[in-house]
Design a protein that fits this description.
Length: about 450
């Protein structure tokens, strides 16, 4: 087994740029200032450290999604410059540093496409400038990354385009754990199967599968075991699903179909060719402002209650029970919370005192279930991760519980006659998804906590 380091040498350096020492290294946003000697000194130090920590002489240098390259401080210093040339010149400098330490470099390929198409990566008709292709250093190989399709023809088209830029392209697929608390094994297996078929036909030799931690990294990486194992069997040429399931049970001590139940919180009524993270945005959807209420079709509480029942028995599994406990308690919380905001608005405008009393009890129930979810989720986190990062979960889940209490208290004031109106519930709700009534109840991937919990600035 070879452990290959994966770093960033252009964009996605959003954590480092907050520190004063590195602010002069920045072009704009989280993008390094290409051409700046201090930037290359920093990259040299990265390579020096990595060369001591890893035996591998292959390194992933990133360089993806630098959409604003050359449009910030670089523009102030150098004026309007061909952005493809900025990218290539930067790659050359990083390449020379890599050679100094004996590294072969691999990098995400999307910026070559985005700069040629005005921002689009997955384009059917991209044409890369021949001069740009010639300038890509010989110790740099491209990685075509794609997690977004279950159509083999899509991968065929993109691999053909990559073959025209540089030989020996790598491929990176995705096992979806980066959007919400629950995994997307079903979708991951469908997309991986299509991608691997295409890679085999195109003679791609180097393939890896990614898991990421976008927007909080809530989902357990171990919850992706079914799709990871499935991919490994496909890579060996085994397409017999019954045989794969039998081998999975023998290796992990749990039935394949049982492990797949971890997908349930994000898939009530959603097919496995779609990505939906309703278990996250409905959890954090505010009960008074209700930015995500426009996605509700009705029946969500009952759907999550049914999911909780299915997950209940698997909590007893000796090795993997903690994963099911997290998803089960999440579904229990959502069996009250998912429609709580919509119900609140309906009860408020009905002015029915008995309904209002029952609604306040729902809030109390939601508090208890959310506290239970928090405790099981905390246990999962500390089994699998360092404590770093759980401060984010404390703030988010703790804030949610406090907000539930705050809303409940104001409803109680309304019930007791101490106030006459709740201002947020008087406002007309807007559709934050921008999709209108036709989208109600459709699967939505909205993995943005800050834009879910409030229309204000956090």
């Amino acid at each position: 087994m070879e452990l290959i380091p994966c770093i960033q040498t252009l964009a996605h350096l959003n954590a480092i740029v907050r520190w004063p020492e590195y602010r002069t290294h920045v072009d704009c946003n989280d993008i390094m200032l290409a051409g700046d000697e201090a930037v290359y000194e920093l990259i040299d130090k990265m390579f020096a450290t990595i060369s001591q920590c890893f035996t591998s002489r292959t390194i992933n240098i990133g360089m993806d999604e630098a959409l604003m390259i050359g449009r910030g401080r670089y523009y102030d210093l150098h004026g309007d410059t061909n952005r493809s040339q900025i990218l290539v010149n930067h790659i050359k400098r990083v390449s020379e540093i890599g050679k100094k330490y004996g590294f072969t470099l691999i990098m995400w390929s999307d910026m070559f496409f985005r700069l040629a198409t005005g921002g689009e990566y997955y384009s059917n008709s991209v044409k890369i400038n021949e001069e740009v292709k010639k300038e890509i250093p010989n110790n740099v190989r491209l990685i075509y990354w794609d997690y977004y399709s279950t159509d083999k023809n899509h991968y065929d088209t993109m691999l053909t385009a990559h073959e025209k830029i540089k030989e020996d392209t790598w491929f990176a697929g995705g096992l979806w754990n980066w959007t919400g608390f629950a995994p997307h094994n079903g979708y991951s297996m469908n997309s991986t199967e299509a991608a691997l078929q295409s890679c085999r036909e195109h003679g791609v030799k180097d393939v890896f599968l990614t898991t990421w931690g976008d927007n909080g990294g809530e989902c357990s990486r171990f919850s992706l075991l079914p799709s990871l194992f499935y991919a490994s069997e496909l890579a060996k040429g085994n397409t017999n699903k019954a045989d794969i399931a039998a081998k999975f049970k023998e290796k992990y001590g749990i039935a394949f179909e049982h492990f797949m139940l971890l997908d349930l919180p994000n898939t009530p009524g959603v097919s496995s060719d779609k990505i939906c993270d309703a278990e996250k945005y409905l959890l954090y959807n505010d009960c008074f402002t209700g930015l995500m209420d426009s996605t509700l079709a009705g029946g969500e509480n009952e759907q999550y209650a049914a999911c909780a029942k299915q997950l209940e028995l698997m909590k007893k599994d000796e090795n993997w029970g903690y994963l099911f406990a997290t998803q089960q308690t999440l579904c229990e919380a959502l069996s009250v919370k998912a429609q709580l905001g919509a119900k609140t608005r309906a009860v408020y405008h009905s002015r029915n005192r008995e309904a209002l009393k029952a609604l306040i009890e729902d809030y109390q129930n939601a508090e208890q279930k959310l506290d239970c979810f928090y405790k099981t989720y905390k246990k999962q986190w500390f089994i699998e991760n360092k404590p770093h990062g759980f401060d984010v979960q404390d703030i988010r889940i703790g804030g949610l519980i406090t907000r539930i209490k705050s809303c409940k208290d104001r409803l109680q004031e309304l019930y007791d006659g101490n106030i006459d109106v709740i201002e947020e519930l008087e406002e007309k709700q807007l559709d934050v998804t921008g999709n209108g009534e036709k989208f109600r109840g459709q699967p939505l991937n909205y993995n943005d906590w800050m834009k879910t919990v409030t229309a204000n600035v956090l």
